[in-house]
Specification:
By secondary structure, the protein is an all-beta fold. It has strands at 6-9, 27-31, 34-38, 46-51, 56-65, 74-81, 92-101, 108-119, 124-131, 136-143, 161-169. Helices cover 0% and strands 50% of the residues. Strands 4, 5, 6, 7, 8, 9, 10 and 11 form an eight-stranded antiparallel sheet that branches. Strands 1-2-3 form a three-stranded antiparallel sheet, with no helix packed on it. The protein is globular.
């Protein structure tokens, strides 16, 4: 296993009131014995919250898009289902909200679209939303969840559905 000692360095010009503002220098990032230069500021492009590594979510998951190539609008796509669960059917009410992220924390400041559905075992469906320019967020809620351990399996997590997200910018 490789361990990297990563240090982020940002050099910022602090102009005095009597001098015109100076251009910021590029960010330098040091990786072990290598230095890389980034000409633009670092920004988070996309985040996913509430999804396990195997693609299952609990009662809530969120996907946020903060930037897109060329700052273009596009499509937000959510695929949701329980194709990985062949046990006893525990219908789950699904609410998918799409909109502008709240300024701080989770949730939405403004809702652009809403979809309701009931997910069953071995079921899957894809939902698409016409998307404005980022920032954007989709929030998926499933109620009730179920635990495979209720049906004799070892997995004790509370599962809502398997979920995947994508943002497809217009061409």
């Amino acid at each position: 296993m490789h361990h990297f000692n990563t240090t982020f360095v940002r050099q910022v010009a602090r102009p005095k009131t009597h001098n015109p503002p100076r251009k910021l220098r590029p960010i330098q990032i040091a990786y072990a014995n290598d230095i890389s230069r980034i000409e633009r500021s670092l920004r988070i492009g996309r985040t996913t919250d509430g999804v396990y590594g195997d693609g299952w979510m609990g009662s809530e998951a969120q996907y946020s898009v903060f930037v897109s190539p060329g700052d273009r609008p596009g499509r937000m796509v959510v695929t949701l289902g329980r194709t990985g669960w062949g046990g006893t059917d525990v219908p789950g009410r699904v609410k998918i909200s799409f909109g502008r992220p709240a300024a701080s924390g989770r949730g939405l400041a403004e809702v652009y679209g809403l979809r309701l559905w009931v997910v069953h075992r071995l079921d899957q469906r894809t939902f698409a939303f016409a998307a404005r320019r980022p920032p954007l967020r989709v929030v998926v809620e499933v109620n009730p969840t179920f635990s495979p351990s209720q049906f004799g399996f070892a997995d004790t997590r509370q599962l809502g559905a398997q979920v995947s997200f994508s943002f497809q910018p217009k061409g």
